[in-house]
């Protein structure tokens, strides 16, 4: 049952940008931080702390955006019939 539900969700998301965003956002974020830290005068501890603070602030925003996107998709697909 869970496998079929996950398969259905993956098929629904196939045409959206959610999967692409899940792949690109971590890569782009890592590249930006690596470039910034290469030129930054901070010590290693401050760099790690700043990275975790940015992740802690950014992840809830991304979770909210992705959750709203999936909920809107469910509403448009059938008014939450399977929930």
From TrEMBL:
Entry keyword set: Membrane, Transmembrane, Transmembrane helix
UniProt keyword annotation of Transmembrane present: yes
Transmembrane regions: 20-39, 51-71
The name this protein goes by in its record: Bacteriocin ABC transporter, permease protein subunit
Organismal lineage: unclassified sequences, metagenomes, organismal metagenomes
